[in-house]
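Re: weekly structure request thread

Next one in the queue (162 aa):
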Amino acid sequence: MNMKLPYLVDINGGQYSLQLFDEDGLSVLDLDENQKYILQDFKSKLISVKEENNSLKYYEIQIDGRTFKVQILDVVDQQILKMNLKSKKFNLFNELKAPMPGLVRQVYVKEGDLITKGDSLIILEAMKMENVLKSPLDGIVSELFVKPGESVEKNQILLSFK
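Done, posted below.
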């Protein structure tokens, strides 16, 4: 048995430590690039990848019809998390702030949503004009601080990213 480094796996908000081993009796059958059967101890599970963001190590998978949001953190990611640091890529933008006072007309995302740079996030009405606030990065919406119909002040935090 060949031991590999431990991983921290976040599944639907719960964190689990995972140690990978090379073991006999595990088979992976490819149906296509997004669907696989995993066979172990005469039991099979159909696994489908619904969404993936390899740079964030984030995946939304479906196992036998149940959907799981999974983020995999290797040893380096875990050290960064322990030191409460973020990579330079994410230091610039971890919050979306209101550029002006206004009224939140629409919120296009919810907590846990995977977003890409340029996605429309919120419509903010100011001085009878609707302003579409777009994502400055690829990431995951970690927390929403506003809802439609709320008034906001300039520089008020509207949502945060991870």
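Residues 89-161 form a domain with the OB fold (Dihydrolipoamide Acetyltransferase, E2P) fold (CATH 2.40.50.100). The first strand starts at residue 3 and ends at 11.
Next request, please.
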